Amino acid sequence: MLAPSSSLSEVSGGVVYPSSDGQPMADNTLQLEWIVTLKENLDVMLPDAFVAGDLLWYPVEGDNRTRRAPDVLVALGRPKGHRSSYRQWEEGGVAPQVVVEVWSPSNTFAELVGKAWFYGDYGVQELWVLDPDHHTLSVFTREGGRLVGHPVAESWTSPLLGVRFEVEEQAIRVFGPDGQPFLRFAELRARAEEERARAEGERARADREAARAEALAARLRALGVDPD
User: Fold this and answer.
1) pLDDT tens across 116-134, in order?
2) Within this chain, do residues 175 and 193 fall inside the same structural domain, yes or no?
3) Reported pTM
4) Same-domain status, 129 and 188
5) Dist CA 99 CA 84 (whole Å)
């Protein structure tokens, strides 16, 4: 089920909710690569969730100033489809359960604290903060009604999504619940194409088998033999 096309409008209830805050999606190519990789892999992994990158989230109806644009957000149980922003009151009141922030050199600790408070106040269950430059990961999980931060020394698995992170000295590796590593966008697209081609091959093979069986049945009937 796709989100309705009206979701592309910036107007809701007579109030304009801008689709852009004027900030760039990423400060550098490494940050962008991580944002796209996480967004695309999560989107494929979660068929029954809305996953977006750099989309403004408005949690309060009538308030177009209270907002954030997580690098990636995941709203479980919400339909996929295009939106100009994530307006929570139009999404059954469902807040994104997981948000991701990919650290860049321009980010500050105060900025992170502000985001963590915002996400905690408005219902986020997990916040993942990756620093791809320094290969570090911090996670915030909901405890006692607020988000509490934990640095990850070696590995961590998301209780909500089953995504596993392996933190090494020179790399952060991400794996889906099936144990398969997250792929870069080009690799993910190539795998999807391989799966499509394999499915088409299976359908063609099944069609050939069905045609062969029908031809055999026709020959038997011509000889007066009931193929059944």
Assistant:
1) 999 999 999 999 999 999 9
2) no
3) 0.79
4) no
5) 18
> What backbone torsions phi and psi does residue 21 show, to the nearest 5 degrees?
-105, 5
Task: Report the phi/psi class of residue 18: left, alpha or beta, with left for phi > 0 and alpha for psi in -120 to 50.
Answer: beta
SS3 readout for the chain: CCCCHHHHCCEECCEECCCCCCCCCCCCHHHHHHHHHHHHHHHHHCCCEEEEECCCEECCCCCCCCCECCCEEEEECCCCCCCCCEEHHHCCCCCCCEEEEECCCCCCHHHHHHHHHHHHHCCCCEEEEEECCCCEEEEEEEECCEEEEEECCCEEECCCCCCEEEEECCEEEEECCCCCECCCHHHHHHHHHHHHHHHHHHHHHHHHHHHHHHHHHHHHHHCCCCCC
Residue 127: both structure tokens together: 């916040």
pLDDT tens-digit map of 7-64: 789 999 999 999 988 887 778 889 999 999 999 999 999 999 999 999 999 999 999 9
Angle formed at CA 173 by CA 48 and CA 127, multiple of 5 degrees: 55
155 and 187 share a domain? Answer: no
Measure the CA–CA gap between 54 and 43, rounded to whole angstroms. Answer: 14
Q: Which residues contact 61 (CB under 8 A, 6 or more apart)?
A: 12, 13, 87, 88, 89
Domain region containing 224: 183-228
